[in-house]
Amino acid sequence: MCHPREAAAYQRTPMGRSLTPVNTEVRASFTRANTKFEVHDARHTVTRNGRRADFTTVWQVGSGAHAAGFLVNISGALFQSPIAHYPAKKLWDVAPGYQALDHIDFNRRITPECLGCHASQQSGKLAPIDCDRCHGDGDAHSLRPSKSNIVHPGKLSSFERASVCEQCHLTGVARIPQPSAKPYEPGRKLEDSVAIFVQPAKDLKVVSHVEQLALARCGPNLWCGSCHNAHGEKVDIDAQCTGCHTERPRGHAVEGCPACHMPKRGAVDGLHTAFTDHRIAKPGPSVPFEPKLRAWRPAANAQRNLGLAELAVGDYANSFRNLTAAYPRHSNDSELIGALGTLLLMRNQHADAAKLLAGHPQKQALAFKALGETAKAAAALERAIERDPLDETSYHLLANLLPARRREILERYLKRNPAHLATREALGLP
Ligand code: HEC
Ligand code: HEC
Ligand code: HEC
Ligand code: HEC
Ligand code: HEC
Ligand code: HEC
User: Which of 261, 280, 287 to mutate to test the pocket of ligand 6 (most atoms within 8 A of CB)?
Assistant: First the structure.
């Protein structure tokens, strides 16, 4: 009502359409490995060895600028359909990450993290990314409009300004929530809520624009908002470049700067899509980088967070060293305790692992199993299933642990997810 121009323009941008109702006038089909995939309006069907699984998709995630994924609701939880749309190539194919699998199912959970970057919650309901995500809570502002009770991202100082976009455009290799921190809000520094760890690599990832731009030699004054208007207004990018680069090599091109300095490349974790290289380099050999794991910016609880990030990237020796050293200062920190438990499990220190993994019943079960304590392992897996009745892995672990009850256990899972192909196959059901 108050900013009709910004609101209308924003709703047409890809971010304003990050989550949309499913287009119900499509027909498509394709085959991957031994599996046939069909799209019929909102219905997605997967057929393998004569078994069919049908699901009705409820949301499209991704405006389709590059790729669109689809969400299905299974017993009250959201899953990603293995089928995705790649509009630029006018192609339907499996979603990124599924191309290497030969037993594809509807079993990829949509986590709160996915929704945190792709959607907003409005009165408990899912909605596309909304104003609050960049401008902060607008309730007070709409009652008594004033510049002092709303965030203007463009006027924040540099880390706070960068944080607004980084909350979603910087995945790094690990995002470690700070212990008992408030969720991030625009106007603050991201690292006060989530510490991000990066490990530069040669290849582009889908969500790595922030990391790439930081490798550009153009300096800290260049931020996302220099070349992108969140409200979809066109920005003259050449003018941005020439504003700083008043001198260029003799005979140099005078326009179309991104075509040569920000070329399109494939991303290692995107399928059938090309992204813009934000490293703004001279064309030619790739930009040098150091593949070292590091915190994006200095933040509190540095050693704890580094240890957790090392665990996430598989550097177990350093993770164990840092987490044991940080433990005395964080002895009530459930993340850290769970991570230490996981490391002890990997070091075959099963009795100690079982103690620390009380909050992670599925892993605790592995420790009990290794100790030969079958009843305790089964009880832990039942706890994992009680917490998350759609936790496929726990049912399968339980079925392996108790072979005599295998059929009954897998049937329990099938009650929750009746179309699940692999479980039907395992039980010899049609
Ligand atoms: C709440 C998460 C979130 C925040 C905050 C966010 N983005 Fe995005 N952004 C996304 C997602 C998700 C997409 C992909 C949208 C799609 O196509 O579905 C996207 C797409 C984009 C695109 C490509 C599409 C286009 O409009 O050309 C640009 C550019 C972009 N964002 C810039 C920014 C900038 C600049 C900021 C900070 C001012 C920002 N974003 C903040 C999540 C976010
Ligand atoms: C840290 C924030 C973040 C998280 C977590 C995240 N995404 Fe994204 N995702 C993005 C952004 C930003 C883009 C847009 C990238 C672009 O346009 O370059 C994107 C792109 C996509 C796309 C379009 C891909 C493409 O190739 O264009 C899909 C589909 C998608 N994400 C699904 C998911 C799913 C499913 C999850 C959870 C498993 C997830 N995302 C987790 C931020 C995130
Ligand atoms: C992805 C982040 C993002 C989202 C979402 C977003 N904005 Fe913005 N908005 C910005 C940025 C960044 C600026 C500052 C642009 C600049 O400085 O050039 C801005 C500027 C504005 C301004 C202009 C302030 C001034 O300078 O006078 C208004 C008004 C505004 N936004 C309203 C909205 C409304 C209403 C919505 C929701 C419909 C919305 N914005 C959603 C990022 C966002
Ligand atoms: C805020 C000012 C600013 C803007 C805007 C800017 N640059 Fe730069 N750029 C610089 C500075 C400063 C350097 C470093 C110069 C040096 O080290 O001699 C640089 C370096 C470069 C280099 C050399 C990189 C290398 O590998 O040595 C290229 C190429 C370049 N910029 C291209 C661009 C292009 C293209 C744009 C627009 C898309 C752009 N710049 C926008 C300030 C800027
Ligand atoms: C120097 C200019 C410049 C800056 C600064 C810049 N971008 Fe871009 N960005 C571009 C250009 C050019 C494109 C390609 C646009 C097109 O093809 O229409 C692009 C495209 C994108 C896209 C669409 C996907 C892709 O890769 O093509 C996203 C998402 C994006 N930028 C995010 C960001 C974020 C986040 C930041 C801040 C970290 C940022 N950009 C900073 C120039 C810039
Ligand atoms: C047709 C491709 C092309 C276009 C378009 C282009 N450049 Fe370049 N640019 C190059 C190449 C190739 C080099 C390396 C040339 C060299 O080192 O002598 C370069 C080098 C540069 C450098 C680094 C100079 C140095 O050695 O320090 C800057 C700055 C630069 N370009 C800015 C721009 C700007 C600004 C634009 C848009 C007005 C632009 N370029 C458009 C191809 C292009």
Answer: 261
